[in-house]
Amino acid sequence: LVYAVDDPDSLEAIKRLREEILEVKEDKCTPIVVIGNKIDRHNERRVSSEDVLSKVELHWNHIFLESSAKDNVNVMEAFRE
Predict the structure, then answer these.
(1) Which of 6, 35, 43, 45 has the fewest CB atoms within 10 Å around its CB?
(2) Gyration radius of the chain's alpha carbons
(3) What's the pTM value of the predicted model, to 2 decimals?
(4) For residue 79, what pLDDT is reported?
(5) Looking at residue 35, which CATH number applies to its domain?
(6) Number of Cβ atoms within 10 Å of the Cβ of 71
(7) Is 40 helix (H, G, I), strand (E, B) or coil?
(8) Would you say residue 57 has pLDDT above 90?
């Protein structure tokens, strides 16, 4: 699931998508990777990586990465996870 670090609404959207996935899969242990994209937009960041990391890894037990498709940061790692 990918959200944009400069768009809090996109983070809310992946929360809803995650719930839908878990409902359809009927398995709370479904592996999901959450990716915060557009980290190249430093001055426009509106979503804290610390807040998302806490939610994703501690509460949801999923993998969290941040990436920049523009700068090719963690793009391949996202697919490896």
Answers:
(1) 43
(2) 13
(3) 0.89
(4) 87
(5) 3.40.50.300
(6) 11
(7) coil
(8) no
Q: Is the per-residue pLDDT at 26 higher than 90?
A: no
CA-to-CA distance for 41 and 64, rounded, in angstroms? 18
Q: What is the DSSP string of 51-81?
A: HHHIIIIIIS--EEEE-BTTTTBSHHHHHH-
Q: What is the span of the domain harbouring residue 63?
A: 2-80
For the segment 43-52, the average pLDDT, to the nearest whole number, is: 95
Q: Cβ–Cβ contacts within 10 Å for residue 3, how many?
A: 22
Task: Write out the two tokens for 36.
Answer: 């915060």
Q: Calculate the CA 11 to chain-centre distance.
A: 7
Instruction: Quick: pLDDT tens for 30-46.
Output: 899 999 999 999 899 99
Give the chain's domain count.
1
